[in-house]
From TrEMBL:
PROSITE patterns to which the protein is assigned, alphabetical: CYTC (PS51007), PROKAR_LIPOPROTEIN (PS51257)
Protein known as: Cytochrome c
Matches recorded under SUPFAM superfamilies: Cytochrome c (SSF46626)
Domain Cytochrome c per the UniProt entry, residue ranges: 26-135
Record's keyword annotation contains Heme: yes
C-alpha cells in the first residue's frame, strides 16, 4: 500500500484549504497516541504483547513482529482489516474489539494496489503507520 504519496496529496489539499487538517491525523505520532488509548492495555505499551496478571483468554500477539511473521514485509492490508474488525466476522474466537464500529475519523484515500484508491478512516491509517514504526 502506498500511504506516503497519498498523504502528500492530502497535505496538498490541506494547503489549499479544501479539507480539515488530516496530515497530523494520519501520522505515526497520532497512531502512537491512539494505540496508547485503545490498544496498549491488551497489547502492551510497546505493542509486544500482554504482560499483566493471568487472564482467561488467549494473550494478544506481539505486534512488533508483524513484519517478521510476514517474510519481512509489513502486512498493511491484513493490519488494517484486523484493526477495523473485518477479521472478526471470519474468526468467531476473536476477542479483539471491532474498531470499525466506532468513529475512526474522516477518510483518506489510500492506494491499496497500483492505481486503486480506497477511502480508509484516518485513525485506522495512523494506527497502521505507528505499528509499522515499531517493527523489529
Amino acid at each position: 500500500m502506498k500511504i506516503a504519496p497519498l498523504i502528500g496529496a492530502v497535505a496538498g489539499l490541506l494547503a489549499a484549504g479544501c479539507t480539515p487538517v488530516l496530515d497530523d491525523r494520519v501520522s505515526a505520532a497520532n497512531g502512537a497516541s491512539l494505540f496508547a488509548e485503545n490498544c496498549a492495555a491488551c497489547h502492551g505499551p510497546q505493542g509486544r504483547g500482554y504482560d499483566g496478571p493471568s487472564r482467561d483468554w488467549t494473550p494478544p500477539p506481539d505486534l512488533s513482529l508483524l513484519s517478521q511473521r510476514n517474510g519481512g514485509v509489513f502486512p498493511e492490508i491484513a493490519t488494517l482489516a484486523t484493526i477495523y474488525g473485518s477479521v472478526g466476522h471470519i474468526d468467531p474466537e476473536r476477542t479483539m474489539p471491532e474498531f470499525g464500529a466506532g468513529d475512526l475519523g474522516p477518510t483518506v484515500v489510500v492506494e491499496v494496489e497500483e492505481g486503486v484508491g480506497t477511502p480508509i478512516p484516518a485513525d485506522l491509517v495512523a494506527l497502521a503507520e505507528y505499528l509499522r514504526t515499531i517493527q523489529r
